[in-house]
């Protein structure tokens, strides 16, 4: 994994591999994101299911949007 | 001595000697130069950098926030991630060190195709998640946006704030983000990192200094 660094003081762009510390942070970030995405997907699925049930109860789209 | 009506620049009189003309022109030019320079420095956007990058896990901008400006406009002209579901994250830096805690961010985003509006609160997070989708490598689906960072580059301990908007698409998720956030850890911040939450990012970003 690489990082590109633009240094405004020199105007130079350098590219290097992530350091061990940066790599560990990066992997942690990816794990955290996967967990967040999983939770978000579950929430959206529950929302879609709830909306479908409201439609089954006879609510119109306009009425659901007004909730 | 006659002077101009607006900026009071000094001009020669009709009766002045021609032999003093060179000095008069130089004096006038110096006054114009000083006025224009001062106006540009105090009343304008200044483009500091425009950087293109390709397939990077992290794109860093260092030594970009200085005491010269009150706040900064970051324009993401185009950007996409190699990962279809990746969000776009930002971290502020001090020196070469990225701050990895203390980020508060609220994001209200609309998924245009899904006809949904989602409000997300990310208190005390490890980064600002500035967009729910980074965008895809497609002229129609690339991400783009703008963010203003204030309370930064003061040369002393500061607590930056971020505000902005970003649109990014992946698959059928066409997501428009409206974000605002703060950093609760004080530091002498002078740069920032951009990264996708997974995969690599490719794009072009411009940074402008905004005079106080």
Structure report:
The complex is a heterodimer of chains A (67) and B (212). Chain A has two helices and two strands. Chain A has 67 residues and is of the alpha+beta class. Chain A has a two-stranded antiparallel sheet. Chain A is elongated and about 65 Å long. By secondary structure, chain B is mostly beta strands. Helix content of chain B is 10%, strand content 51%. Chain B is built from one helix and 15 strands, in the order E-E-H-E-E-E-E-E-E-E-E-E-E-E-E-E. In chain B, the strands form three sheets. Chain B has an eight-stranded antiparallel sheet with strand order 3-15-5-11-12-13-8-9, with no helix packed on it. The longest helix of chain B has 22 residues. The radius of gyration of chain B is 23 Å and the shape is elongated. Strand 1 of chain A pairs parallel with strand 4 of chain B.
CATH architecture of the largest domain in chain B: Sandwich
Helix content of chain A: 55-70%
Query: Which spans of chain B have pLDDT < 50 for at least 5 consecutive residues?
Result: none
Give the class of chain B from helix and strand content and strand pairing. mainly beta
The end-to-end span of chain B amounts to 36 Å
The largest β sheet of chain B comes out as:
8 strands, antiparallel
CATH level 1 name of the largest domain in chain B:
Mainly Beta
SSE order of chain A, as H and E? EEHH
- Counted beta strands of chain A: 2
How many strands, which pairing sense, and closed or not: the largest β-sheet of chain A? 2 strands, antiparallel
Please state the average pLDDT score of chain A.
91
Main sheet strand line-up of chain A: 1-2
Based on Cα principal axes, name the global outline of chain B: elongated
Which chains make the largest contact? A-B, 24 and 28 residues
